[in-house]
Amino acid sequence: MSDRVDVVVIGSGYGGSAVAARVAPHGRVLVLERGRAWRPGDFPQHLPGLAGAYHTRRNPLGLWGMRLGAGVGNAYVSGVGGASLVNYGITQAPEDHVFDAWPVSRTEMAPYYARALEVLRPAPSPLADSLGDKAFLDGIEPGRRVDLVNTIDWERCTHCGLCVPGCNLGAKRSLDVTYLAVAQAAGAEVRAEREVVALEREEGGWRVVVRHTGRALPEEVIPARHVVLAAGTFGTLDLLHRERRHLPLSDWFGRRMTMNGDGLAFLYNTRHALSGHHGAPITTSVHLPFVDPDGRERTLNVMSGRIPKVAMRFSALVLGVFAHALGKRRGPRDAAGARAWRRFLDLVRTDPRGALAHTFMYKLDAEDSSNGHAVFDADGRSALAWADYQQDPIVRFAAHRLEEWAAKVGGVLVPDVSGLPGMRSFGVHPLGGCRMGASVEEGVVDTAGRVFQPSGEVYEGLRIADASIIPSSLGVPSSLTVAALAERVGEDLVQTLRTAA
Ligand SMILES: Cc1cc2nc3c(=O)[nH]c(=O)nc-3n(C[C@H](O)[C@H](O)[C@H](O)COP(=O)(O)OP(=O)(O)OC[C@H]3O[C@@H](n4cnc5c(N)ncnc54)[C@H](O)[C@@H]3O)c2cc1C
To answer: Is 146 near ligand 1, meaning CB less than 6 Å away?
Structure first.
């Protein structure tokens, strides 16, 4: 048994690393991460490598995995830095009306967003104006464009398009070089390849039971005064579900989960020179207003998506087949010969004159109605289930709006294939399940991330600071909001440590 630490943080994604950075100057902080450390040069560059990095029980140090529930599936990441290792680093705060449904206001959250931005330091791509997407979006939805910033070091970035499997050039400002570096500089220890398998209460704190990931070594028990669960939506749900007999929770546990409106569709082989073949990350979007059947204002965010270069050749071929089999040709078209020539070029190589380079990829995030819920398999592994996700009002609005776009600009609309029998909608922003609320009647944690007991009291020394506490869909990518909430949780924890000192 080791000495008692002040704070054990479980997971090193946006939530865990932000809390660790805030708390490390005020006590002994230990971050436990089940995944391995990934360095530039380690990330898979080809589809077989990506398949080999799939996280399973037999490959416990794999980089990424999927959790499948009825109707939907979601990707997750395992490694030091969490999903920052593989994302495009789009860094965006939600629109003000999102906070109307939260127990904390936009004004109260503003300083925490500002602090998170100071550490993450996102910046716009120097290529963003030359890619064609901005002019294309301005033509379709005038006055609605919202340009994006990414946590990328643009001086190092070569626009190779390999952000998503992971940057081998060290150009990504992933958490290992931002928040975790701040935490470590302030004395926090980060232990990789350590999976927390149980949490037990003891007098004045907690016993954190840890396994060496993938190695048959004895379990370690780490005593801690405070525990911050930041294992990502699925990791946190898994752990709390396992402990529910000893740690009963609010009735909200596992409810009101959201896909954050995730969706994907293509406008294939248009007349417009776009940048579907380009390796630049996602740099621009439009925000479209929508009023739901209850009269609530919501936002549909259509980003100009990118196919990761690792999958580009493959996608060009698959898209060509899908467009032929399922696509709906809409609107103005140019000569059949020109279209066929572009498709032919894609068969030969990735070409700026090819069909993929004339394709718009709709990457959707939206304020869906957060009507998903957690399900658990026989081993207690969680997934988000939402059988009729495709019928959510804003998802239907998105499908309708994309049809209108296609009619305006032409091209083959390759719809979200999840509408087909047996298919699911896939996402990367599973949020909620341990939602923040003003009381146990409204949530699983309070506005400082402290976990409610069913009585309404909080468990002393137990907090959650990750995507699972987000109370509603955001309509924009989620990392900045996770970091901002974790900043808030961290600030409150620092007060508690100071008071106890
Ligand atoms: C492919 C992809 C692209 C994305 N693109 C963007 C984007 O461009 N912009 C954006 O804002 N958002 C993006 N997101 C979403 C964003 O990255 C997540 O919302 C965010 O990472 C959530 O932060 P988190 O701290 O909740 O969890 P995570 O970042 O998932 O971190 C959780 C960590 O906990 C670890 N863990 C889990 N269980 C245990 C355990 N029992 N013991 C120890 N460690 C454990 C995991 O291994 C993981 O490293 C993307 C996500 C993915 C998957």
So the answer is: no
Cβ atoms of 60 and 434 closer than 8 Å: no
Question: Which distant-in-sequence residues (6+ apart) come within 8 Å of 406 by Cβ?
Answer: 267, 328, 330, 331, 412, 413
- Measured at the CA of 258, the angle between CA 493 and CA 199, to 5 degrees, comes to 40
Average confidence (pLDDT) over 144-168: 91
User: Residue 381: how many CB atoms within 10 A of its CB?
Assistant: 17
Nearest residue to 240 (alpha-carbon basis) of 50, 491, 469: 469
pLDDT above 90 covers what percent of the chain? 72
pTM above 0.85, yes or no: yes
337-353 average pLDDT score: 86
Rounded distance between C-alpha atoms, residue 131 and residue 467, angstroms: 32
CA distances from 312 to 308, 443, 500 (A): 6, 42, 55
Classified as helix, coil or strand, 187 is coil
Give the span between the Cα atoms of 72 and 375, in whole angstroms.
Answer: 12
Q: Is the CB of 163 under 6 A from ligand 1?
A: no
Q: Please tell me the predicted confidence (pLDDT) of residue 460.
A: 96
Q: What's the CA gap between 13 and 26, in Å, rounded?
A: 21
Strand partners, 172: 152
| Mean pLDDT value of segment 65-85 | 96
Q: What pLDDT, on a 0 to 100 scale, did the predictor assign at position 277?
A: 65
Tokens of 344: 């032919």
Q: Is the pLDDT of residue 473 over 60?
A: yes
Q: How far is the CA of 400 from the centre of ligand 1 (A)?
A: 31
| C-beta 482 within 6 A of ligand 1 | yes
Write the class of the CATH domain 1-38+79-122+173-258+430-501: alpha beta
